[in-house]
Amino acid sequence: MNKTISKPFLLSSEDLTKEDLELIFKQADFFQTSYKPGDKFEDLKGISVALAFFENSTRTKLSFEIAAKRLSAEVMSFTASTSSLAKGESLLDTLKTIEAMGVQIYVIRHGSSGSQQFLQRNTNGIILNAGDGKHEHPTQALLDNYTLLKHFGTIQGLKITIVGDIFHSRVARSNINVMRTLGAEVKFLGPGTLLPRRLNPWNVDQIDSIEEAIEWSDVILVLRLQKERMNSGLLPSNDEFSDFYGVTLKRISKKPGIVIMHPGPVNYGVELDYAISSYPNCLIQTQVTSGVFIRMAVLSLLSEYLKN
Length: 308
Known about the structure:
Layout: H1 18-34, E1 48-53, H2 59-70, E2 74-79, H3 91-100, E3 105-110, H4 115-120, E4 126-132, H5 138-152, E5 159-163, H6 170-181, E6 185-189, E7 205-206, H7 210-216, E8 219-222, H8 238-245, H9 249-252, E9 259-261, H10 284-303
Helix pairs in contact: 1-10, 2-10, 5-6, 5-10
């Protein structure tokens, strides 16, 4: 496949045009329909991929690793806690060390917003942002929207409410850009302490209650409470959050067709009832499956920049 996305990296959802999104989804469709267990595609044959995760991750890291291996890449996994960073080596020095080993694609998660943008300016390789601080997580937004596209057939005109800890959520930031580019209408619901500050920089309308959100929405995208990023005092208690904003089976039973999504990991009993995990329109496991094919698509398309 000669065509590729418009930029030779993926740092932000804002890097992606509507044409880029359509191309990524088309490539993901190809992999999903063509893949059989044990198959290997050769899109990344001879290309080295480093998975450099400076924050904990299960779904994203495994998903990228599976995706790269299915494309025949040579995969190097890097763990910050056992690296020379623990001895004082700088992030840039670490990148240069990995680059000197012949790595060409870097999948990076880091706790500081903007880290990947800084590193991309200092390498000839290709960087994929797998999450940077409270900033962005573009491939999560891609897989969320791909999941919706497969379920509904289109995203144009969908009404989507993002519920929960929006202030700390890179998933929310990335999804707003992608969903709006594809024609969805997006609203927020959450405690005032967990909503964007400084006059709502994304110009997103807010809904007042979970009941109103369910009534208005085609899709509820639930976010977990990111306690690891919170200062004390932002929430009185988990129970109070659940009472006012929790998505329960009783609440959604009033609108059986509503779709429930969550990027994971889920705090069951806080933002989401465990019973909802087996609800017919709960797409959480579908999101995980979509993630592998979306990341295969992104890696495959970006690899074209290394072949020219």
